[in-house]
Write a structure and sequence with these properties.
This protein is an alpha/beta fold. It folds into two domains: 187 residues, TIM Barrel, CATH 3.20.20; 120 residues, Lyase, Ornithine Decarboxylase, Chain A, domain 1. It has 13 helices and 21 strands. Strands 4, 14, 15, 16, 17, 18, 19, 20 and 21 form a nine-stranded mixed beta sheet that branches. Strand 8, helix 6 and strand 9 form a beta-alpha-beta unit. Helix 8 packs parallel to helix 10. It is globular. The termini are far apart. The structure holds ligand LLP. Ligand LLP binds next to helix 11 and helix 12. The site of ligand LLP has 22 residues, from helix 11 and helix 12.
């Protein structure tokens, strides 16, 4: 169910109007729907229930403690990629035993922290890393490290070049053909325990075919390694895409209808195509969704500062910038933009741009918007994933406040940064 919708002309997140939140907390402002996050978590587990998977939420998508806590209480595990993310999860009440520790460049300090915390496993991306993990474990007398190899299945997943990961043109994972030999060598090392095997082919994947192709390619290898080394789990990674066009679907189940209309994979197709391949493995199945859980749950609210016409173009200058949400700049990503108040009649074509001193600071080119005025607020939709998490302080801009809405209750889960926060620790002489 999509919980961000227009009611009486105004946009609400669950039972709270964005206008009320913007009046109270100012802009730019991130607003998340707890109900949407939990709903997507449950739907994903629901369609795959015959596998009883462990969902390991990919923390990088949105690492606010309140969101991690929400998911931890729902039973979620976590996919972390740094010592910092691991600490966040534990601070939020998540269990290290349900954390998988991924990343191509773990430092020895991070490996040690993961061992000390007792992570479920390290997802290992090279043989040198494997040796390093064994060496760190050996230094801690009598310890061994739980590991799983991240396999690069060499399957193209489509999508933007900067977020595809599953082919040999990418730095990620261990080439499919080398995996068996590395497990064999690792099996002889008393400081390692072979726990599972992992893959991840990319992000914002909107079709079932790449997932199915990769899993189908992996299954015989996984079964062989399971028999040989007693692997417990197969982690099929994240990457399930979400709707960015027409994200503001109204009414019950609007989100899912939209996905279907755009010929996106639906959850049922995703499940139907994978369950038959995975069930017979009789292993624990792990998933690492990030965007799917939080993407459509979040909006970025911004205020119109100025309008201008250059002769060639009309611009709408807003108070959020590429430092707050970098996806359009970095990936040419599309985010729907909507006035949060009742739309005025008519439509204009405009470029919605931020205040940052870069021509790339654009949220949308040539958008048809209802006419806006100074002081109006706009919502940049589907901004819950890789929004705040990728925000920076470029141009010495404090990062936005974050609100988590549950029903009619809105909680400030991160106050807006103050300018003085930004030079904390700096020395002027
Ligand atoms: N697992 C691994 C190993 C990953 O590398 C990623 C994402 C995920 C899971 C979660 O993928 P998701 O379910 O969210 O697609 N900043 C980019 C996306 C980068 C994705 C990086 N890896 C964006 O804003 O589109």
């Amino acid at each position: 169910m999509h919980r961000t919708q227009r009611k009486g002309g105004k946009i609400y997140v669950e039972g709270v109007s964005l206008e009320a939140l913007a009046d109270r907390h100012g802009t730019p402002l991130y607003v998340y729907s707890a109900g949407t996050i939990l709903d997507h978590y449950r739907r994903l587990r629901g369609v795959l229930r015959v596998l009883d998977p462990l969902v390991c939420y990919s923390v990088k998508a949105n690492s606010n403690l309140a969101i991690l806590n929400l998911l931890a209480r729902a039973g979620s595990g976590f996919d972390v990629v740094s010592g910092g993310e691991l600490e966040r999860v534990r601070k939020a009440g998540g269990k290290a035993a349900k954390c998988v520790f991924a990343g191509v460049g773990k430092t020895e300090d991070e490996i040690e922290a993961g061992l000390r915390a007792g992570v479920k496993a390290f997802h290992v991306e090279s043989e040198e890393e494997l040796q390093t993990i064994a060496a760190v474990a050996a230094r801690k007398k009598g310890r061994w490290a739980p590991v799983a190899l991240r396999v690069n299945p060499d399957v193209a997943a489509g999508g933007h070049a900067k977020i595809t990961t599953g082919t040999y043109a990418n730095k990620f994972g261990i080439p499919f053909e080398e995996v068996a030999a590395i497990y064999r060598r690792a099996a002889g090392n008393r400081y390692l325990r072979l726990r599972g095997i992992q893959m991840h082919i990319g992000s914002q994947i909107t079709q079932v075919a790449p997932f199915r192709a990769a899993v189908r390619k992996m299954v015989p290898l996984v079964a062989r390694l399971r028999d040989r080394y007693g692997l417990d789990y197969f982690d099929i990674g994240g990457g399930v895409g979400i709707v960015y066009q027409d994200a503001l679907a109204s009414g019950r189940d609007g989100w899912w209808r939209t996905a279907k209309a755009q010929r996106f994979l639906t959850l049922h197709e995703y499940a139907a195509s994978l369950v038959s391949l995975l069930r017979d493995l009789r292993m624990q199945i792990l998933l690492e969704p990030g965007r799917f859980l939080v993407g459509n749950a979040g909006v970025l609210v911004t205020e119109v500062l100025y309008r201008k016409q250059t002769g060639r173009k009309h611009f709408t200058v807003v108070d959020a910038g590429m430092n707050d949400l970098i996806r359009p700049t970095l990936y040419e990503a599309f985010h729907q933009i909507e006035p949060i108040g009742k739309p005025r009649p008519g439509a204009i074509s405009t470029d919605v741009v931020g205040p940052v001193c870069e021509s790339g600071d654009v949220f949308g080119h040539d958008r048809m918007l209802s006419p806006v005025e100074r002081g109006d607020r706009l919502a940049v939709l589907s901004a819950g994933a890789y929004g705040f998490a990728m925000a920076s302080n470029y141009n010495t801009r404090p990062r936005p406040a974050e609100i988590l809405v549950t029903g009619t209750r809105a909680r400030l889960v991160r106050p807006r940064e103050r300018v003085a926060d930004l030079w904390r620790g700096e020395k002027k002489s």
